[in-house]
Amino acid sequence: MADVSPEPIATFCGDCNCDDSSVDLRAGQRCVDDGDIVTSAGVSAGIDMALHLVGRFGGAEESGLTRAGIQ
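Below the sequence we write its predicted structure tokens.
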């Protein structure tokens, strides 16, 4: 059986109780990018996550243009 590392998950909940060993809650991190899974810790952090993904797939310039466009 392969050793499976827990997936890091962003959360805004600092005192969450999670008995699921398949997740690694990252309280205080607005966005966690684990390669194939990206999570955010709430609504405004979701905007940060979206800009991160625009940068990942479109480049830094595209991310900057998107950021300027939504302000």
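DSSP finds two helices and four strands in the chain.
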